[in-house]
Amino acid sequence: MIPIENLYRRERKRLLAWIRYRVSDPEDAEDLLQESFYQALTELDSAGTIEYLVAYLYAVVRNKIGDWYRRKKSKAHIRPELESEFGLEDRIQSREKTPEQDFYRQLILEELALAIEELPHEQRFAFVENVIHRRTFREISQETGVPEGTLSARKTYAKEFLSRRLQELKPLFLEEFN
Questions:
Q1: 73, 113 in Cβ contact below 8 A?
Q2: Residue range of the domain that includes 137
Q3: Is 42 exposed, middle or buried (0-12, 13-18, 19+ CB in 10 A)?
Q4: Are residues 113 and 168 in the same domain?
Q5: From first to last of its 178 residues, what are the pLDDT tens digits of the chain?
Q6: What is the per-residue burial (b if ≥16 Cβ within 10 Å, else e) of 77-93?
């Protein structure tokens, strides 16, 4: 039996839990797990031996998750709302628009989109409905039965999490524009 089959049996549940922590849809998580094992098996055949197979497999899974998020978040309509909500247009824009600024803006928005997907479902729902879809808490409350104050609090928690994420990015990207 080849090592990847043993690894699959031994690590499947742990890897799937790790993926599910990052990807809420169980079917997508299972697909990502299968794709990752397939890629690892394919690359193992072509690369020969890989010394730290578990670490390699986690790297493959992490990359697959990143690719999945990048494909999923390719919705251009969220950009202006996110830029406005976090005041990014003031930080990223200058009098001259350069390709470098566009590159950094895209990177920041991609990271924010990834971070939004990491939010707990209730917070993500309140944030996306209010900020991206421009719905009032009253409208959302009437539709869902969740009190307006609860929705507002969920959005606040979401925005705090996303703001912390932006602060983590600041040393990497935002200094480029000061």
A1: yes
A2: 97-177
A3: exposed
A4: yes
A5: 455 677 778 888 988 888 888 887 888 889 999 998 888 777 776 655 666 777 888 888 888 888 787 766 554 445 666 767 776 655 555 445 667 667 777 777 777 888 888 899 999 999 988 988 888 999 999 989 999 999 999 999 999 998 888 787 766 554 444 4
A6: ebbeebbebbebeebbe
